[in-house]
Design brief:
The structure holds two protein chains of two kinds. Chain A has no helices and eleven strands. In chain A, the strands form two sheets. In chain A, strands 2, 4, 5, 9, 10 and 11 form a six-stranded mixed β-sheet that branches. A five-stranded antiparallel β-sheet of chain A has the order 1-3-8-7-6, with no helix packed on it. Chain B is an all-beta fold. Chain B has no helices and eleven strands. In chain B, the strands form two sheets. In chain B, strands 2, 4, 5, 6, 9, 10 and 11 form a seven-stranded mixed β-sheet that branches. Chain B is globular and about 40 Å long. Chain B starts with a strand and ends with a strand. The chains are: A mainly beta, B mainly beta. The interface between A and B is medium-sized, with 25 and 25 residues.
Chain lengths: 116, 115
Amino acid sequence: DQQVKQNSPSLSVQEGRISILNCDYTNSMFDYFLWYKKYPAEGPTFLISISSIKDKNEDGRFTVFLNKSAKHLSLHIVPSQPGDSAVYFCAAKSDVGGGSNYKLTFGKGTLLTVNP
Amino acid sequence: NAGVTQTPKFRILKIGQSMTLQCTQDMNHNYMYWYRQDPGMGLKLIYYSVGAGITDKGEVPNGYNVSRSTTEDFPLRLELAAPSQTSVYFCASSYPLTGAIYEQYFGPGTRLTVT
């Protein structure tokens, strides 16, 4: 049962245009969402995040939008650059047990290719 | 500041062999995690630890064991390797009370093949 879904395995865009990566989730208990970027042969690196009490968070060229009623979030990259070519993972945070324990549930990832 | 380091980078095991994947972080993070990533799949949580001496199971713990005797180290043990354990293994750490809330820092991964 996939609780975090990235339905597009891949996306190709031209340099300078907008890249939009989508993520859907099913668990209403998720209260924080993160995007990670992963290059081949490297570990994922944190990109941007958003709390469930917000609907938008912006950091430079990267903006994450959250539509809580639709259980949908998206990552916008404007303008896209060839160096943005990587796999992007959506992750959702839920609490585990009591206290400050939590876990992240990851989607399968979307391979973004930005063509020069 | 090396961050999260993992050794080895690559390993080929025969069925039934055992090995330990090493993970060390130098950021004084309390929380540490082990994930596996199968081809075309997301990361699945194997085990996690909220501090030295405390470990707990994630989504896919069968076939693995962990220990956390220090804040820095979180080794993952495979006792009887099986082909289903062929995967890329990532170690991560985090410290929830910093400004980057819930961000996990990942190591470069260990690619394991069991034949």
